Amino acid sequence: MTADARFWNRIAPRYAKSKIRDEAAYQYTLERTRSYLTAGDHALEIGCGTGSTAIALSDAVGRITATDLSDTMLDIGRDRAAQAGTDNIRFEQCSDDGLPAGPFDAVMAFNLLHLVPDLDAALSSVAERLPSGKLFISKTPCLGEARGSFKYWMFLTLIPLMRLVGQAPSNVRFLSVAELEGAVEQAGFEIVETGNYPASTPGRYLVARRR
């Protein structure tokens, strides 16, 4: 088991009880995502956590394969899906470089890309699972957009300290919007929608079509 898997397993019960920081931005993200999904789709969610987003979107698609590093997160997700009466989600443990083979009609990654150790490899893996014309839908905190501000300095200082005491994962990338979008395009995608939900520090919502 990797250090990151152990970290997410350890914090999973607390994570499951935490409230969404910006409910309006989250609901708008769901609304925009729904507009790109269809009833027959087989969607893949990478880094599904405790399954809340997969469950919320389950009625918009035919089925969802929801993956995460953490077995504990996935167990919570399975329990939540059962309680919600949702039967079209398959929860599966895997890393971002060992994804299910596909192909998929859509791949989703919410609050994940700033945490992967190799962004280019992760995006390449996503592209391999999407036929031409299919969609990659993501939302990513772009901490790099705060460069030069007190908030950016605070992130740079606190995250390593939190990591030392086991309160942060091993990899946190300070991506800018330009870096994120450039990496997505380089992986073989055409960006069809972007927006910041919330606006500060931007949670960059991005929809990209496989070329």
From TrEMBL:
InterPro entries xrefs: Methyltransf_25 (IPR041698), SAM-dependent_MTases_sf (IPR029063)
Keyword list, A-Z: Methyltransferase, Transferase
Pfam families xrefs: Methyltransf_25
Entry keyword annotation includes Plastid: no
A single BP term in Gene Ontology: methylation
GO MF term list: methyltransferase activity
Coiled coil (UniProt feature): none
Residue ranges of domain Methyltransferase in the record: 44-130
Protein name (record): Methyltransferase domain-containing protein
